[in-house]
Design brief:
alpha+beta, 11 helices, 5-stranded mixed beta sheet, 418 residues
C-alpha cells in the first residue's frame, strides 16, 4: 500500500499508518515535504530577526529574498530594491508587517494585506499571518509567518470594480444602466465564485494533511513541528472563512440565495457557532461571555445563514479587540430575537461609519495597523439578515467598544407562506 505521495508503507492492525511511531528523521521528512509542497510562502526568523528559513514557494514569488541564514537587517536590504505598500497603496517601512509584529509583541498576527512592487514592475499582493515561537522559558525565541499570494484575486476585484464604476456612469448618461448593472453583477459573481472555489479546493487538501499530522502520535513532544502546524491551520482557517464570504456574497449579488428555516434549539446552536471565537479569545487573553435569556429556547431560523452572520460579527469583535470582553447576549424583543455581539475594542470612528456596510470597505484602527479581510463581512451580514426578514443595528463609543445587534423574527415564514 502507498501513502498520498506514492511511498509504500505497512498498515498497522489499527488501520492508522501513523501507529508505528516513525523516527524523528521520518517526522522531519514529512514536515519538510509539507512545507515544500505548500502554495503559501513561509518565513522563519529567530529572536534577533535573522532569517532562518524560506520555503520554495516564497522564493518563487519573491526571488530576491536572501539566502538563509541571513543576519538581522535583511529586511532593510530587501527594502532597497522593493517598495512595500499598505492596503491603501501608501509606502510602509520594510520592518512593518506580521512577521515583525509577532516577533516584537509576542502576539499572533492575522491577515495583513499589503503589496510589494517587484523589480520586474509587477505588483505582488500578499495576505500574511504570523505567530511567535516561544522557548522553554516562555520567552519569544523567534517567529514564523505564512503569506498567501492574492494578486489575481485583487486584480480581479479591481477589474470588476472598474467595470461597475463604468456601468454606473453609463446609467447617469443614457438611462439604460439597469440591464448593464445586472450583467456586471452576474459577471462579478461568476468570476469571484469560480476563482474562490479554485482557491478552496487546494486549501482543503493542505488543512486536511495538516490536521492528520497534528493528531498523529509521531509528533508527540515535537513542539516546534506543532507550532508550525498550528500556524498553517490558523492561516488556512482564516483564508477559508474569507473565501466562504466571497462565495456567499457572489450568490447574494446573483440573487441565488434561498432561506430554509426550521425550528432549532438555541443553546446547542449557539455553542457550535461561538466555539471558534471562544478559542481566539482564549489565545488573546480575552473574556468570552454567552448569555441566553430564560425561556428563550427555540426559534425558526435558517441555521447556516444565522451561523454566517454571527460568525462575521464575532470575527469582527475578536479581530479589533485586544483586551477586555467579547459577549453574545440573546433575548426576546417582541416578536423578534435579538442577538447582541459586544466588544471592548476601540469603537467605530465617524469616518468609518460612513462606509461601514459598503463592500470591500476596510477600517484601520487608531493604532494605524493594517487589518485583515477583504471588506465583505458586514456587507454580507446585512444582506443575509435582510433575506431572513431581519436587520442589523449598531452602537459604538470611541475608546469603549461596539455592539452589533442582529434582529430576526422568532418564527420565520416566507412572504408566500412557504
Amino acid at each position: 500500500m502507498t501513502d498520498v505521495r506514492g511511498c509504500p508503507f505497512e498498515m498497522s492492525t489499527a488501520g492508522d499508518p501513523f501507529d508505528e511511531y516513525p523516527s524523528a528523521a521520518t517526522t522531519a521528512g514529512r514536515l519538510h515535504t509539507l512545507l515544500n509542497s505548500m502554495r503559501s510562502a513561509v518565513l522563519e526568523v529567530n529572536e534577533g530577526g535573522a532569517l532562518l528559513y524560506v520555503n520554495p514557494f516564497a522564493r518563487e514569488i519573491m526571488p530576491e529574498l536572501p539566502q538563509t541564514p541571513a543576519p538581522p537587517g535583511w529586511e532593510r536590504e530587501f527594502g532597497t530594491i522593493h517598495t512595500l505598500r499598505d492596503s491603501h497603496g501608501a509606502p510602509i517601512d520594510p520592518l512593518e508587517g506580521p512577521l515583525g509584529a509577532a516577533l516584537s509583541t509576542g502576539v499572533p498576527q492575522h491577515d495583513w494585506h499589503f503589496s510589494i512592487d517587484l523589480p520586474s514592475g509587477r505588483e505582488l499582493h500578499l495576505l500574511g499571518s504570523a505567530a511567535p515561537l516561544l522557548g522553554e522559558n516562555g520567552e519569544v525565541s523567534g517567529a514564523i509567518a505564512s503569506y498567501q499570494d492574492v494578486t489575481e484575486l485583487i486584480e480581479l476585484q479591481d477589474a470588476l470594480q472598474d467595470q461597475l464604476d463604468e456601468t454606473r456612469t453609463a446609467h447617469q448618461e443614457i438611462h439604460l444602466a439597469h440591464g448593464e448593472l445586472s450583467r456586471a453583477h452576474n459577471l462579478q459573481a461568476g468570476f469571484i465564485a469560480n476563482f474562490s472555489h479554485d482557491l478552496r479546493t487546494p486549501l482543503s487538501g493542505v488543512l486536511g494533511f495538516s490536521d492528520l499530522l497534528g493528531v498523529s502520535p509521531k509528533l508527540e513532544g515535537a513542539d516546534d513541528e506543532h507550532e508550525y502546524l498550528r500556524e498553517v491551520v490558523e492561516a488556512g482557517d482564516t483564508l477559508r472563512m474569507m473565501i466562504d464570504s466571497v462565495i456567499s456574497y457572489s450568490h447574494v449579488i446573483a440573487g441565488t440565495v434561498r432561506i430554509h428555516a426550521e425550528w432549532h434549539e438555541l443553546m446547542p446552536l449557539l455553542e457550535q457557532i461561538i466555539e471558534p471565537s471562544r478559542r481566539i479569545c482564549e489565545r488573546k487573553g480575552l473574556t468570552f461571555e454567552l448569555e441566553l435569556a430564560e425561556g428563550m429556547t427555540r426559534m425558526r431560523v435558517d441555521e447556516m445563514r444565522l451561523d454566517e452572520v454571527l460568525e462575521q460579527l464575532l470575527d469582527n469583535a475578536t479581530k479589533f479587540t485586544n483586551h477586555g470582553t467579547i459577549s453574545l447576549k440573546v433575548a426576546r424583543d417582541g416578536e423578534e430575537m435579538a442577538f447582541k455581539v459586544s466588544d471592548t475594542g476601540p469603537g467605530v470612528s465617524p469616518e468609518a461609519e460612513l462606509r461601514l456596510f459598503e463592500p470591500y470597505s476596510k477600517t484601520l484602527l487608531q493604532d494605524g495597523q493594517l487589518r485583515r479581510g477583504v471588506g465583505l463581512g458586514l456587507t454580507l451580514s446585512k444582506a443575509l439578515a435582510e433575506l431572513m426578514r431581519g436587520r442589523i443595528d449598531y452602537e459604538s463609543t470611541l475608546g469603549e467598544g461596539t455592539t452589533f445587534t442582529l434582529r430576526l423574527p422568532i418564527d420565520f415564514v416566507l412572504p408566500d407562506g412557504g
